[in-house]
Specification:
Helices cover 98% and strands 0% of the residues. The protein has 281 residues and is an all-alpha fold. The longest helix is centred in the first third of the chain and has 152 residues, at 2-153. The two termini are 45 Å apart.
Amino acid sequence: NLMSSSVSALDTVTTTALESLASVPENVLARVSQISNMILEEQSLAAQSKTVLQKLINELTSGLLSSLETILSPTVVSILKVNRQLQHIFKTSWMIAEKIEDQKKEIDDFLSILCNHLNELRENTVSSLVESQNLCESLSEDLKTVKKTHSQELSQLINLWADRFCALEEKCENIQKPLSCAQEDTKQKSKDIIDKTTFHSTKMFAVSDGLAQELRNFNQEGTKLVQDSMKYCNTLNSNLETVSQETEQRFKSLNLSTACFSEQWTSCLNKREEELQNLLE
């Protein structure tokens, strides 16, 4: 009875142990299958992430390059166009300054000739008036001499001749006074004309010199500004090209790094799957 009970108990334990051992491979297989499914999901997710990331990188690269070409490049072109227009304006201003200088020289020559002619006119007028005055004085002296001579010989007619000579003297004096007044008036007016002409000429030359100098200074400053602007635009264009190339290079490097990381992740997952298959076997 004891042996029968022991055998029965041993059978029961053996059956239970065999059932437990039989369930171990099933549990291991189920767990391995679950892990394999998880690995497949991770591989699929890694592939999708790689595709999406590469697509985003390509879109970002194309968008950045398109923005650089559609926004910054036209801006640089517009700035260069404005610089060319400013150069044309400054060139025109310089030509105007040169024309003003030429006109100033012509006016200077004209005023010099006018002053010379006025001086000649004044000298000729004064000379003519002096000569007329001298002739009147000579005539007066001659009349006085004739009067004195004939007063001794023609005593009967002295009163008549005296009256006539007095009348002639008065006429000579009347002639001499307007001549003197005309002489003084001509001298004064000629002097006033010359002084006013010289004053206005000097004033106009000063204004012309100032205007021409301001135009030259404006032209020089504008030219320097345009040159600096063109220099900055060229530097900006060069920097934009450099940034574009560097950005493109960085996106390529990022894309390559992403692909390398994805491949390493996939390789690691494959290695885990292989280890699990070995474990399952």
